[in-house]
Amino acid sequence: MFRNALEPWHLLILGLVIILVFGSKKLPDTARSLGKSLRILKSETKALKEENGEKS
């Protein structure tokens, strides 16, 4: 049923819809914020793993 559910032209249409909804001026700021959030999450999980490793 969903064998070819996600084809390249689906991604193109999805990208165009995202640009139309958010606007081309907001997308770089949004991507920058997402990257910053992911870096913070990565550093926090690394610190948590190191903390758990030292206690064991």
From TrEMBL:
Transmembrane segments annotated in the record for this chain: 6-23
Chief place where the protein resides: membrane
Record localization: Cell membrane
Listed Pfam families: TatA_B_E
Membrane topology, as annotated: Single-pass membrane protein
Transport among keywords: yes
Keywords linked to the UniProt accession: Cell membrane, Membrane, Protein transport, Translocation, Transmembrane, Transmembrane helix, Transport
Subunit record text: The Tat system comprises two distinct complexes: a TatABC complex, containing multiple copies of TatA, TatB and TatC subunits, and a separate TatA complex, containing only TatA subunits. Substrates initially bind to the TatABC complex, which probably triggers association of the separate TatA complex to form the active translocon.
Function: Part of the twin-arginine translocation (Tat) system that transports large folded proteins containing a characteristic twin-arginine motif in their signal peptide across membranes. TatA could form the protein-conducting channel of the Tat system.
Family indicated by similarity: Belongs to the TatA/E family.
Family matches, as NCBIfam families: PRK00575.1, tatAE
Name of the protein in its database record: Sec-independent protein translocase protein TatA
